[in-house]
Amino acid sequence: MNWLSSLLFESGSFSHGILAFSIAISLGLYLGKLKFFGLSFGATCVLFVGLIMSWLGIEVDASMLGFFRNFGLILFVFFIGLQVGPSFFATFKSSGAGLVGLMVLAVGLSLAVTVILYFLCAPAVSLPEMLGIMFGAVTSTPGLGATQEALQSLGSKIDITVGYACAYPFAILSTMAVIMGLKRFFNVDLAEEDKKWDLAQQNMNRAPIFYHVRANNKALSGITLREIRAIIGRPFICSRVLHDGTITSPTADSLIYVGDRLRIVSNAEHKTAVCAFCGEEDKEVDLATAHSPIKNERIRVTEPNMQGVQIEDLHLSRFDGVNITRVARAGVTFFPYNSLRLQLGDTLICVGPANAISRLAALVGNREKQLEKPNVIAIFAAIAFGVLLGSVPIAFPYMPVTIKLGLAGGPLIAAILLGYYGPRFHLVTYTTHSANLMLRQWGQTFFLASVGLASGKPFFEAFINGSGYLYVLLGIPITVIPLAIAGFIARTKMNMNFHSIAGFLAGCTTNTSLLGFASSLSERSIALISYSTVYPLAMFLRIISGQVLLMILWAA
What we know:
Layout: H1 2-9, H2 14-33, H3 44-55, H4 62-121, H5 127-137, H6 141-153, H7 161-185, H8 190-205, E1 209-215, E2 223-224, H9 225-232, E3 237-243, E4 246-248, E5 255-256, E6 261-266, H10 271-278, E7 279-281, E8 295-300, E9 323-329, E10 332-334, E11 347-352, H11 354-364, H12 376-391, H13 406-421, H14 433-464, H15 467-492, H16 498-509, H17 512-519, H18 526-555
Antiparallel strand pairs: 1-6, 1-7, 2-5, 3-4, 3-6, 8-11, 9-10, 9-11
Helix pairs in contact: 1-2, 2-3, 2-14, 3-14, 4-5, 4-13, 4-14, 4-15, 4-16, 4-18, 5-6, 5-7, 5-15, 5-18, 6-18, 7-14, 7-15, 7-17, 12-13, 13-18, 15-16, 16-17, 16-18
């Protein structure tokens, strides 16, 4: 049985390390599904299982822990950024300024609470210990590392990770308590919040509508649709025309005559102008009938060469009357402006003769199985760029060390940029939803298991000798007070969606496991968007604020 003993207790063995990770992750995820008082902790339980395993004497090679912690963190934040990238900038323009302002308030309040507690507890708690507690309370591992490095440059040998390890798990629980407390205080209905979000997204993206008009304006007789669009000055699509009892799918150069009936697709704000110019709205006809010779079909963009191609570059006039009436992407419907760039995985809703639609489908791909192939070249290139970006030192006056975005901030920013700008450079960024979720959860669980397996002994020893309870008591107000105030303002003053608030609060803590909890409250990606909106700047502020606070109080 020597082989079993070696597998279980030989910490330098790779097999032992993988076994420890597998047990921590599988058991943690199982426990995370269980509900206590209607609340489940999800992947966060992986951290707690890792802490217990470490305390029980299960050790893993430090280099292996470091690799899986960093690689898991990169995977998690990168695929979050890749998913929210296409909608990140639009959301930032609509609500980002308010979110960022609230985040800065939350960071400032956490620093203020830390300073107050430090002066109240000195000299029982030293400044390095207090900073360790603060970073555990805000769950900022990069901030902890940067401050530890700054302390070393000042000649201090105090280990601040114990206070961090004690405050960290309770900070996660406290943040969850704040989120659920806000839900109860404001009597939030999660399903109703989803519906409000869907309605707001439709309004923001101006989902197109359908209606029919009767061409009574004599000025229309004998002119083309292209000329009508130029005269009205409003973008619209004419998907069907009823002329002399025959339904056709017109092109931009098709002629329109008095008495024709047109099926129009446009944004809602353009309906009045189109109806007024053409004559009147016709509510008695529906040209999208079952016996119509014109087909309405959905085709998928699966051809890599179509990535980033503008709709006008498809030259639809060559396809004998095919019209693209809508473009569906990640659950959002767009009006097909000529300047709209296609992305792999888009769904084109087309109207036209069956043969012509088949020709367009052949051009854009329409082969679902092609989407199952992973596109890893752009992904790993972006990760490399993210690592380089996170490693760039940023110097500030009067600070002994430089600041870096690190392995969390760099890849996240790179992924957001890739998701948004990738199509413009014909970079294939598409990954299936299931693949994105799988890689994201792999990264999250590896990261949490690594932190737990590395911190179990100092965590429990601090509670045994008594100082751990003090660290926890000091950490809870640093966590709760700023988040509760920011969440209250977000709901009452900004009327923010509750799922956005949950993601925003997780982003303020820069905690990946809390994002998993916030995301579990809704099947949509609402929390992801608000989290990613504030995360990069929040993480940066957490890193530099701890060092600034150290410089000020150390000198004092």
